Amino acid sequence: MAINHSLFIPLFVVAVATFCFSCYQRLQLVAVGASENRFDNPAERLAGMFSYAFGQKRVLARPYGFNHFFLFWAFMLLLVANGAFLLEGLFPSFSLAALPAPLHHGLEFLFDIVSLVALVSVAIAFVRRVLFPPAYLGNDYTSPRSGEALLILAMIATLMVAFFLLNAAQIAMGQPGNWKPVSSAIATFLDGFSGRPLESIATVSWWVHAVVLLLFMNLLPRSKHMHILTAIPNCYFRSLDKPNVQPREEFKVGNRFGVSKVEQFSWKDLLDSLSCTECGRCQDLCPAHNTGKPLNPRRIVHDIKVNLLDNGSALKHGDRGVVPLIGPQGEGSNHEDALWSCTTCGACTSVCPVLIEQMPKIIKMRRHLVQEKARFPEELLNLFENMEQRSNPWGIAPSDRGKWAALLGERPFKAGETDYLFFVGCAGSFDSRAKHVTVALATILDKAGVSWGILGREEQCCGDSVRRLGNEFVFDKMAKENVALFKERGVTRIVTQCPHCFSTLKNDYKQYGLEVEVLHHSELIAKLVEQGKLKLPKQADQGKIVFHDSCYLGRHNDTFEAPRAVIKAATGKAPVEFERNQENGFCCGAGGGRMWMEEQIGSRINLERVKEALKQQPDTLCVSCPYCMTMMEDGLKDEGAEQVRVKDIAEVMAEAMA
Amino acid sequence: MLVISCIKQVPDTTQVKIDPVTNTLVREGIPFIVNPYDTHALEEGLNLKDRYGLRSVAISMGPPNTEATLRKACALGVDEAILLSDRAFGGADTLSTSNVLSAAIEKLGAEESVGIVFCGKQTIDGDTAQVGPGIATRLGYTQLTLVDRIEFLDLKRNVIRVRRKLEGRHEIVEAPLPVVITVVRELNRPRYPTVPMRLAAQETEVKVWDNSVLKLDVETVGLKGSPTWVSKIFSPERDKGEIIGDGVGDPEGTANLLIDKLLSKDLLAV
């Protein structure tokens, strides 16, 4: 078969030029973003890139991910095959046959088998999309059967079929096919042909393969399949910390606060938007989306991308974009109701196969609304004022903070004398139900011989809610004051009974130079159990216990085992699990400052979770967070299931010790 | 035209305790806040600024640390903040306070006509509700107290119509400018400061007017100008109640007991 090089070469040059131009245009768009350092720790970044991108770690977390895994690796290997194919088209003398025979044969075999794998994967994908699409593939702007998705599948299938026909025709014409088992098998069907028809099949297949390949390449940067180009770098540039720790802001006259225009996002945020594969997994797990709120994390990323593309040419020339980033619903704009629906549970960021950071983008936009516009749901006005004036969400007098300890006597923290600062937190100090947990934990620590002390009225709110709500200015002040207080008082170890305090002190305060050991009470109790410091004379009979994961303990801090270990030690058996548990756990609805807001749109998140709990017919619903406690108790009341008790793990343990 | 909001820095009374021995307020370590009613006075001044283009000024009499309260007003958007502070103003009751505030308003009025003076209906530390009416009396302005709605402001005819919130009824009143309006909480929802405004407020100048500026007779200000004399402050004794009935074991009987008790004390009408 003779290739018409003089026809192919100009075609190739044009296709490569347009491809490069498209990529350059997209890169220019990414470059309009604000600077952000994502270049540190190259070794860690590379390791993650291999595991997430090449190892497809998160893709494989769901069964169907295997299909993508095969397609991905087929793609990687066929890059070599297609590279050789293009070179053959450009240079008459180029051929892989010039390689040493064993290598050449090995490659021929590999390409042949891998092409079949790709073809089968594409067929499975096609059948899944058309006949058995999971609900989360579609949404209000795309469907599993979207033209683009099916076109891409068709193109890949065409490439594979053309590859096989080309090889089969060449084998039928007498080329050796020993190392191409699939092509050889197809060649037997071409037995009836000879001479010119075979020649035609080969030539047509070659050109179909060539043209589709060049078209495919050009389609990538202009479609959701841009992820083929951006996903790998996106994994490299991922956030090395848990992505819910947001960058600090500098409060200086003339600075901007938060994001109201797409170009105020960092370049990584914009790269994220071009990397979305539209797999829909974030949408599938999002508690807000699942309860009929206008928030869809995938839509947030999509709208940022559309906004960037629509405003792109203006932005590249230093002009202003016309499509508002925050505005009435419409492609390219994020509705404020969507931004306020987020519970910051982190399900989206922890499930995304290409490590897009959806939730942090929401916080950035909240920061703009709160700090530059003072626009937020009206319930938050009280919260913000209470936080600023009295450093707790309810506006209770700070002098009442240490009152819960009255029964236990004065327990001040003294550096050098007390092992742990017990950072009680606002709920633990003021909420009448959570105070029981505080006392339970204090009792456990006393019985285990752990010395602890509190700051009493000097303790302040950690600022979790205000930070997640975008009120970074107030959080900044609180964090600085708390860190200064910890340093002044010589605190080196902290135990909290609230995952929000825990995560904020442990992760967020690192940005303020706090480097102390911070433990959630589940971790400390589990440690005491392990060290045999807790005497457990009886096993607490709590009936059937179902354990609900707190997002800020579990997903945001990977602490899944400790609370379960505590329950097991106290009751002698492991708790029953929710259908959605651990990494896939479902928020109670109170994170991200939602604790202090009305839930007026859609159904209630806590009811959804309580209904899921009731499927297990539990006697006790066990939690490890005061917010979850409130939400679950309220939910059970609303469901008329008050026979189910809600208990914190500390209470379960304290009862076993009594 | 000016719209002036009078604000006061008060101790956060939810955190104030009375020293049982000396019968004085324990102020140590108690944070100061803007008197909650005054935040509504401030907000309405800003509303009128936004809607009618009036120039909004916040004034406060108090010790030098009151500057913090005025900076908050700046962060919310007032055009000018003036602190009335002088050792001679210290220890003032409501009469001498209204003397100082009136003098400041008069001085502002000499430069630009005053349309409306807003005050909170009362402060949460003194609870007298006298300073607003006092200013109106000293200046001869019309006095509109307990306002919960501005019906309209007509700058052509120089009149304002407001709704007063009285016990069990509302009263709609129209008055010629200038007026002193004391406001209740229902009037508006105070805004929240934006960060750029807060940062700018850090650098805004808060003018300080002492008595060399106001030139008041020292016999009419501060302790000397205060005929009110506080002889004693104390927490009223409260009798501890009794627990009757058994709400868990016999909710119905307990509810009946409660109703009987309320009826016997004449707290419920049959």
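The beta strands of chain A are 420-423, 452-453, 493-496, 517-520, 545-547, 576-577, 620-623, 645-648.
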